[in-house]
Design goal:
Elements lengths: L1 E2 L6 E3 L2 H4 L4 E6 L23 H15 L3 E3 L9 E4 L19 E4 L4 E7 L3 E7 L4 E7 L1 H5 L2 H13 L7 E4 L13 H4 L16 H11 L7 E3 L14 H4 L5 E7 L1
Parallel strand pairs: 4-7, 5-6, 10-11
Antiparallel strand pairs: 1-2, 2-3, 3-12, 6-9, 7-12, 8-9, 8-10
The chain binds zinc ion.
Length: 257
Amino acid sequence: MTRSPDNGLSFFQFDQMLEHPQLRHAVFTRRNGCSSPPFSSLNTSFGVGDDPEHVKRNRQAIQSSLKARQMVFARQVHGVDVQVITSEKSENPMQADSVPSVVDAMATNLRHRFLTVQVADCQPVLLYDPHRKAVANVHAGWRGSIRNIVGRTVQAMQEAFQSDPGDIIAGVGPSLGPCCAEFRHYRREIPQRFWRYKDGDHHFDFWAISRDQLVAAGVGSENIQVSGICTRCHPELFFSYRGEGITGRFAAVIGLT
Ligand SMILES: [Zn+2]
């Protein structure tokens, strides 16, 4: 965990991604923001009932700690659509009056567009192609996972940027771990082909599912880093929907400079 010297925000980073100076990324903890309970404190979501002024200030703190020119948010709906941002026209700036796209994954090869995913148990999956200089950020909840949003995003990078999946490096951020991902109604919620990721206690390993989906999409297993930090087990660091119900969303951000 690293702490920003400017405003004390703390965040996790993936070792492999730090080797690329053009790339900037971070998975922010919930600490050192300005929101009050139950959103304390670095909540980045306008959709959970928090004071919008606090959310705005939190987003600005993240933007300044990354020295990001522009943050790009999406309205996440647990779908599998990928927004590809390739021209100035498809800009989606952070201004309060802008309407974010309804997608759960974003990809761009433009510099200074910092793609931001907001989560509390769902997986933020960061992707970077150092060869084609493109990034993507995925919001993968269990609904997105069983529809392979991670693989679809790799495919979108292939189509839009001619990315070779073998070049892509991937980071799976803090999210609900196999320790806490219990699905009592898995028989009607989770397709049978995923039941092999279940232990005897109805807990699913969605980290392994993402890893396998990335490998199936052509990403080298040596290029995949899974943080292995369970959000529900670490409420002092991260928001957890399962653990807290009404709570905030923390931010995972990736962009090119
Ligand atoms: Zn856990």
